[in-house]
Design goal:
alpha+beta; NADH Oxidase; 7 helices
Length: 232
Amino acid sequence: MQETQAVVDAAKIIGISIRTAPKSAGVDDIAYTIIGDSQKKDLANEIRKIATMLLKENNDPKIRKAIELDWHSDAEACEKSDCVILVGVKGRRPLGFNCGGCGFKTCHEFQSAEPPKTIFMAGPFCTFKLLDLGIALSSAAKAAADFNIDNRIMYRTGLAGYRLGLVKEYNPILGLSLSASGKNIYFDRKEKTEAKELWRQINSYQSAAASAEGGSHQSPAIGDRGKATGDR
């Protein structure tokens, strides 16, 4: 379709907004790459692969169902997108301010911290670099909206890109999916609505169980918000 090519062309201009977005202390540690059809399928397949790994770690029927709905819905949305822009930052490179925002007293302590073993994008990350990533993504989303291109910032797409090494040496990475069609493909997804209700139920009974035990309960790290939640 002619709209698809228009979106791909626009993505190059949207990239300018990423490059010119304000950066902390003027240090540009942002990178982006535009993903076309062949790599887009690789992203979607990697999202499904991660979902399979998560399913092996969870026996709760509701959690398993929510994972399948959530992750496979995002994989399908990735495939249906006209293109995807992966945006990453060198989150492990501090500015040397010793601000403590990362949870460590000094930047040296932060850099010395051992990242946890995880299938996700392991930190810790510099607070300023995360801010830079957010600003760059927001600038890109605004630029896409100016072109009337439907768009969605997606963690899972970024995670897949990270695991596939599509933006090498950058972590964390998020994806900006772009689409031009008669109906916005990123909203009103039935799978997401069902998954969101399941996550609500899961969080509710896990919180009740934690209260009964007199302690806190950490939800599975399978949602976009760092706990068992749905759409992002």
